[in-house]
Specification:
The chain is mainly alpha-helical. 80% of the residues lie in helices and 0% in strands.
Length: 392
């Protein structure tokens, strides 16, 4: 029985790795060879990325509704759809199917995040093992690192861009089987009722939601184009096989770090610092286009964006009563809106100017504003009798 919470957290890790770390973010390392082979413009590449985020938004909105069936069933179905869409990307060659597949995959990714987080965080809290939430959220970084290794290895073997998608799909199909074995049916675990609550319309919660959206906009431009940026700069082009791996490896321990800081400092204070660190990394990608600069950008990006995601969602879960899907979904909607705007804005500005510097600096500014809003959320939290506690 003592192993069950850990196995559950590992199941959450695998779900997050497949649905988000691979399902959403493998597009970044596959993008350069795909763009080169198909002669896509940066605007088209950004449009494909944004289609995924639009789907993510739609999935977040649907996830907030009362859907028939168990949460586990929806989680497994979303993981399967995600894997099918990855395979479909390898079979497609034109923009309409690319957009449609990434749209559907985005909705599936949102379902994976919402349903796996609601299931795993609830059960870990009921078992008195809430600290294992760091294992669950580490799945995003683990999936990014694994997909980076997979793509780099296949590219060194001269695999086509289609094969990169197919191989990613195989990994995600395997994850469906593993998650089904590790995450038990809903009825197998007693549900608990939390008495702690934070109203969903409080000024602090609104500030947190807006900050979460700005964070989505602020991180996504660098996350989408960093590998392409490296490929396009002769002085650092040799880093292409490694830079996304650096992002992923930096993300793996970041959740444990930021949740620990959130416990020590408070959720919003940790959120402030993480946004500012990420802003430095995003700015470095624009202003310091050298080996040291792009490595700093990758480490700061990977070391913060999953931690920021976890802090926001844990805060939303702790501030909800009953099933936390609605609070998590509201946060995810805001995050999605930021992500939708980011790649489209960056892609078209790049096509017009030939540089990612301007959109990257705008993204860094958005992260600074997110930090300021987080300070407001922290102030409102102090005025509220409810407290958000990561160690609960």
């Amino acid at each position: 029985m003592k192993k069950r919470p850990l196995l559950l957290a590992i199941g959450g890790l695998l779900a997050m790795a497949a649905g988000l770390g691979i399902g959403r973010f493998v597009y970044t390392p596959i993008l350069p060879p795909m763009v080169e082979a198909l002669q896509l413009t940066k605007g088209q590449a950004g449009l494909i990325a944004s289609a995924n985020f639009i789907g993510y938004l739609a999935g977040a909105l649907l996830g907030a509704l009362r859907l028939p069936g168990s949460r586990r069933t929806w989680l497994l179905a979303a993981l399967a759809v995600n894997a099918i869409c990855l395979a479909g990307m390898g079979a497609a060659t034109t923009m309409p199917p690319f957009i449609a597949l990434r749209l559907i995959a985005g909705a599936a990714s949102a379902f994976v995040l919402i349903f796996s987080s609601a299931l795993v965080l609830d059960r870990l809290a009921a078992a008195g093992r809430a600290s294992l939430s760091a294992v669950h959220f580490a799945g995003v970084g683990s999936g990014i690192a694994l997909s980076a290794i997979l793509v780099a290895t296949l590219l060194m073997a001269h695999a086509s861009w289609q094969m990169l998608w197919f191989a990613s799909a195989v990994l995600c199909f395997a994850a469906v089987i593993a998650v089904a074995a590790l995450v038990p049916p809903d009825e197998a675990v007693p549900r608990t009722v939390r008495t702690q609550s934070v109203t969903g319309v409080s000024p602090g919660f609104i500030a947190l939601i807006v900050a979460y959206g700005l964070f989505g906009f602020g991180y996504v431009i660098t996350a989408t184009f960093i590998v392409d940026l490296v490929r396009g700069a002769p002085a650092i082009a040799h880093l292409e096989p490694y830079i996304w791996l650096v992002v992923g490896l930096s993300a793996v321990p970041s959740v444990a770090l930021w949740t620990a800081l959130g416990t020590r400092w408070g959720v919003m204070r940790a959120y402030v610092v993480a946004n500012l660190v990420e802003a430095i990394g995003v700015a470095a990608s624009a202003l310091w286009v050298q080996t040291a600069g792009v490595v700093v950008a990758a480490i700061f990006l990977g070391g913060t964006f999953v931690g920021l995601t976890a802090l926001g969602l844990v805060a939303a879960r702790e501030g909800s009563t009953g099933d936390p899907r609605r609070s998590i979904a509201l946060m995810t909607v805001s995050f999605s809106l930021g992500q939708i705007l980011g790649p489209i804005f960056a892609g078209y500005v790049y096509d017009a100017t030939g540089s990612l510097s301007t959109p990257s600096l705008v993204a860094a500014a958005a992260l600074v504003v997110a930090a300021l809003l987080s300070l407001l959320a922290e102030r409102q939290r102090r005025l509220s009798p409810s407290q958000l506690n990561l160690s609960k």
